[in-house]
Amino acid sequence: MSYLLTDAKIGRVNLSTKKITIEDINMDLVKKWLGGRGYGSKVLYDEIDPKIDPLSKENKIIFADGLLSGSFAPTGGRYMVITKGVLTGTIASSNSGGYFGAELRKCGFFMIIIEDKSESPVYLEITNDNIEIKDASDLWGLNTSQTTDLLKEKIGIKTAKVSCIGPAGENLVKVAAIINEKARAAGRTGVGAIMGSKNLKALVAAGNKKIDIENIEKFREVVKDKLGKIKTNPVTSEGLPNYGTKVLDNIINSSGMYPTNNFQYSMFKGIDEITGEALVAKKYFVKNTACFACPIGCGRKVVLPDGHEGEGPEYESAWAFGADCGVNDLIAITKANFLCNELGLDTISAGTTIAAAMELFEKGYIKKEDFGDAVEPKFGSSEAIVYYTKAMAYREGLGDKMAEGSYRMAEMFGHPELSMTVKKQEIPAYDPRGVQGQALEFATSNRGACHVRGYLISPEILGLPEKLETQTTDGKAMWVKIFQDLSATIDASGMCLFTSFALGAQDYADLLSAALSMDITADDVMKIGERIWNLERKFNYEAGIMPEEDTLPERFLKEGLSEGVQKGAVVKLDITLPDYYKLRGWNPDGTIPDSKLKELGI
Fold it and tell me: Torsion angle of alpha carbons 513, 514, 517, 523, nearest 10°?
């Protein structure tokens, strides 16, 4: 069985009425929004009121493949989970790799729109052109590995792929993730809690349909060309395959912007113990792993001395539980990472929320009576990062406050300024004072602080596609806009952001043109991304997220970097933000004029 790329269906599931309908793709929307983050965000915006409570039954959650997901485009297996996020109140679109997105396409589906709420735990069984709602009472309470194994056994197909929540999502933890294949995560903005609020434990997909491309020979020719670029680029052919994302540890630390002890310091003395090189040297690393159709293979299968095995930790995860918590114990960091995968937590937000608690404790705002006989949340404690990861997922003791994310937790203790967040989402592993472009991107990101909405580390630190001086503000607004728009289109295409180390807008235009037998230009690629970005911004504004939230914690604006080659640097948003608004074609106050919305067809 086979079907053309654009002939996949949209499944709509109402968990309350149990009604399931199958719809055709709207090709007019495909031309404007592609798939994934584009088409899915358009559907969410059209179908819900942005003002709703994210945990209410009125919210919807959409599993959306990118346009090229399931094809043999390089890394063409990504999918997005799109909803209104519970951590931030913004539009949430979390990206995951692995094989689930491709398996959804093998079932004949492009998107699953999930509505309302089930009275009892359920899961969705997705097979060729078919969706069924099934009882998940026996799955509730299980971790993601147990859930995955049991669902594969139930469906009786070894190649089945599972996307599910763990106890964190069930307990409505605001930093809960959705996990597929036991280790790949749609991680940020608390999407796992939205599934939990709907009593939806999992989606299991198993299909055998083949995707056809109308001009298959042309597509093969283009794919071969892009694979050649990926396989000769130093980052995608050497750095990521050899050490995974943790190739960055020494690079960022030596740049004096490796956040330590909840961003109080910018270099970590224990760095040598937790790098990607250390993971290999200590012989915990076993082999590379790769997602569907991926020529890079940045995943890392790891086995600890006690026999516990899993994937990771990635750069962000190891930093969050490592330097940001003052911990240089690679075994404890890896155990905390494994727990996040099993319990269904976003590693960045989980680790940095623990780090914020550690600073609150260090400064005397969290007191002994707040955690009783439990482990002290102190910097440098290997025991604390493992203990509180679990406590967060199960909302036990101090972990119940941590489950709300670092901003709400710090607010409970009277010091929200100690939460290193933007729009209530935790900032990733780059001190913004060391990179003026990335700082602007963090401040303006549509889903709260996020490095994968515009990875300015690439030009500012790695020198790709060209080297930018880290502390200059000249031209940074332009670079941020370019990276944000291009990243949005990559997410909508179903390809991995890591391909952008080697590919540019014209390369993605070539792939999309060949796949769709249409003439898509590099300008079209950038315009689609700009359209997606502005729609997300419009959703957020209507949800009550004001332009005043395009900022960073005061620490970054007033306190200089503590050490390193960029000592004393602060973020210069007062210069870059007005430039950014002007380049976006927005009003000086950060609102979008009607003329811009009309220009983009929104």
Answer: 10
What residues contact residue 538 under an 8 Å CB cut-off, 6+ apart?
45, 592, 597, 602
Distance CA 357, CA 211 (A): 49
* Angle, helices 144-155/330-343, rounded to nearest 10 degrees: 50
pTM of the shown model: 0.97
Q: What span, in angstroms and rounded, lies between the C-alpha atoms of 429 and 410?
A: 20
Residues of the chain with pLDDT under 70: none
Same CATH topology for 240-419 and 430-600: the answer is: no
CA gap 371, 400 in Å, rounded: 11
pLDDT on residue 438 = 98
Q: Return d(Cα 121, Cα 28) in angstroms, integer.
A: 36
CATH architecture of 2-212: 4-Layer Sandwich (3.60)
- Give the architecture-level CATH label for domain 240-419: Orthogonal Bundle (1.10)
Query: Which residues does 571 contact at the CB level (< 8 Å), separation at least 6?
Result: 432, 433, 436, 439, 552, 556, 557
CB-based burial label for 412 (10 Å; 0-12, 13-18, 19+): middle
Residue found by looking up tokens 């099934």 in the block:
134
Question: What whole-number distance in Å separates Cα of residue 112 and Cα of residue 98?
Answer: 18
Enumerate the domain spans of the chain: 2-212, 240-419, 430-600
Q: Quote the CA–CA distance of 368 and 377 in Å, as a whole number.
A: 10
Q: How far apart are CA 556 and CA 421, in angstroms?
A: 11
Q: What are phi and psi of 301, to 5 degrees?
A: -80, 130
Determine the pLDDT at residue 475: 97
pLDDT tens digits along 47-73: 999 999 999 999 999 999 999 999 999
Total residue count of the chain as it appears in this document: 602
Q: Which fold has domain 430-600?
A: 1.10.599
